Amino acid sequence: RLRETHVRDTVADRELETWLLVDCSASLAFGTAICEKRDLALAAAAATALLTARTGNRVGAMTVGAGGASTPFPARSGRVHVQAVLRTILGALTEPASGPSDLTTGLQRMASTARRRGLVVVISDFLDTEAWDVRLRTLALRHDVLCVEVVDPVEVALPDVGMLVLRDAESGEEIEVPTGDRRFRERYEAAAREQRDDIASRIRASGADHLQLRTDRDWLLDLARFVSGRRDRVDALSRAAAHRSGPLDGIAGAGTLAGG
Fold it and tell me: Rounded to the nearest 10 degrees, what angle do helices 247-254 and 219-240 cross at?
């Protein structure tokens, strides 16, 4: 009647589209505490997917490993779809390909896949030596991005257990580590602290939120604390400038994640 062609979009603007980018490289098949890092990555993906999908929001996923990024799992709603997404992630984590992770390629492909503005959750140990923060910054320009960093305590500080043989899960290289040497442990701890500080600063500089989960802590409690703090910040920003709220703010403010 208006003599113009119109296309009806069946996805309501109020619906949130959440994408999961899960690092499934061999470096996550490691753990010395309560669980392995890949168990923690799966738990973080499950919590995010189930809690954001419970109100009808859409969830999509993509895994990344030594062979690059996988075929995207399309963003859809429904518990059956979420279960299929988690099964796919579990399969990729269970049988990782050998070689270093290609997180940069995964972030680049995610930017071209997630067209509708929404929430992107990146779950990784962020040990990729490439300039992944450049792609992360590009992704954060369009979406609200949450980076979940999974860490094992041995990656932060070495225990005194004498001569220890360590094997690189990605390259297969083995080295002997003199953990009984106090100076060596101090140098290791200083280098690990510098590495983690660098990861955190690169994530913050990209404009993404940062949540660190450790295999020796209660990940659910850490997640709840993060969401609670995020919700408080969102409430404060909403009172000051309501028009600045975004998709991730909507999650924390409405209690989609906090409701768990």
Answer: 110
CA 132 – CA 108 distance, rounded (Å): 9
Could you give the count of Cα atoms lying within 13 Å of 259 in the half-sphere of its Cβ?
13
Q: Is 177 helix (H, G, I), strand (E, B) or coil?
A: strand
Q: Rounded to an integer, what distance in angstroms lies between the CA atom of residue 111 and that of residue 108? A: 5
Q: What is the pTM of this model?
A: 0.81
Strand extents, DSSP E, the chain = 17-23, 58-65, 68-69, 73-76, 119-124, 144-151, 163-167, 174-178, 209-214
pLDDT surpasses 60 at 252: no
Place of tokens 């220890």: 164
- Give the pLDDT score at 5: 83
Find out whether 17 and 57 touch, Cβ atoms under 8 Å: yes
pLDDT at 129: 81
> Among candidates 37, 6, 35, 25, which has minimal Cα distance to 69?
25
Task: Report the C-alpha gap between 64 and 59 in whole angstroms.
Answer: 17
What is the per-residue pLDDT across 209-227, written as a single tens digit (0 to 9) for each? 999 999 999 999 999 898 8
Listed in sequence order, the residues at least 6 apart from 224 whose beta carbon sits closer than 8 Å to its beta carbon are 258, 260
The count of other CB atoms within 10 Å of the CB of residue 220 is 13
pLDDT at residue 86, rounded to an integer: 95
> Which pLDDT tens digit goes with each residue over 162-172?
888 887 777 77
Backbone angles phi, psi at 76, to 5 degrees: -140, 170
Tokens representing 237 are 């920003």
For the chain, how many helices (H) and strands (E)?
7, 9
| Cβ–Cβ < 8 Å for 22, 61 | yes
Tokens of 187: 């140098």
